[in-house]
Amino acid sequence: MTVAAFILGIIGTLTGCLSFGWGIAQFVLTGARPKLTPVVCILSGGKLYAMPATKNVREDIQGSLAHLGGKIVVGVEVVNAGRSPFHVIGWAWRTDPSGIAAVEKDPQGQRPPCEVGAGASKTFVTEPGGVVAAVKGSRAKGVEPRTVYAWVSSGGRDYKSRPLPPEIVTMLEEQSNDAP
Length: 180
Known about the structure:
Elements: H1 2-30, E1 35-44, E2 47-52, H2 58-68, E3 71-79, E4 86-88, E5 90-96, E6 101-102, E7 114-116, E8 121-126, H3 129-140, E9 147-154, E10 157-160, H4 166-178
Antiparallel strand pairs: 1-2, 1-3, 3-8, 4-7, 5-6, 5-9, 9-10
């Protein structure tokens, strides 16, 4: 009987250790780092139609704009992959290597600070002038911007998205040049 109790004790200990290790692994793998995706959106009739900002989205945006009407806005989608709420203190468009940052007013009125719940997402948008202002500010310093990315601040930590494709930046500059 003592041998059976010993074996069951070992099996119980191993199961407990594996369960504890699995819990730690899941906590580490989910992490608290948010996922940031730059988006190009159409604001039409009070609704926001968002598309990830990829280099081949220009034709889709122009086709959708012709169909839906409205105006183009750009922004960042913040997806909280962590287990606790993510606090957004501020966000802007930044250029590398100059570090010039600019943000225009949000046409939907959503302004940080705010909280993104665990597993939730929130999209912050701005007029295209924010991107164009950051690029022009960088050029005014005599530095040609290599990349334009969305920057999100969460208290003591800053996060940045992948860069906006140059095709999108060019489209936004052309649009601002065409505007009265």
